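// run 5 | inverse folding | seed 20
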C-alpha cells in the first residue's frame, strides 16, 4: 500500500547524490551554510539570555532574599546550607528496588508503567 508521499530508497539516493555533488563541487556553499547556522545559534543564545535578564531579577539562588533568610542564623535552616538540619530535610536517598521488582516478576505479577 503505497502513498504518493512515500520516499523510496532510490529517491533518497538521488537527493543524497545531488547534495553530495553540490557540496563537493562548491565547498563555499557548505561553509556559508555552516556559518549561517552558527550565526543563528549565536543570535538565539543572545536573545534568550537578554530575555532572561529582563524578566528575572534574581538570576542566582544564593542572591534570593528568601533563601538567605531560611539559611540565616535565626532562620529555619539556621545551621547553613551544608548543615545537619538542611541535610536531614533536603537530602534524598537512593534505594535499589530492582531485587523487589525481579521478585514480583518471578511471582508472575504484571506491572504496568
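// decoded
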Amino acid at each position: 500500500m503505497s502513498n504518493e508521499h512515500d520516499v523510496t530508497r532510490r529517491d533518497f539516493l538521488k537527493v543524497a547524490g545531488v547534495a553530495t555533488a553540490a557540496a563537493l563541487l562548491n565547498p563555499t556553499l557548505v561553509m556559508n551554510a555552516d556559518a549561517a547556522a552558527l550565526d543563528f545559534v549565536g543570535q538565539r543564545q543572545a536573545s534568550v539570555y537578554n530575555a532572561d535578564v529582563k524578566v528575572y531579577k534574581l538570576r542566582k539562588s544564593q542572591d534570593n532574599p528568601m533563601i538567605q533568610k531560611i539559611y540565616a542564623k535565626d532562620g529555619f535552616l539556621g545551621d547553613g546550607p551544608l548543615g545537619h538540619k538542611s541535610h536531614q530535610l533536603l537530602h534524598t536517598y537512593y534505594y535499589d528496588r530492582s531485587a523487589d521488582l525481579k521478585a514480583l516478576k518471578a511471582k508472575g505479577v504484571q506491572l504496568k508503567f
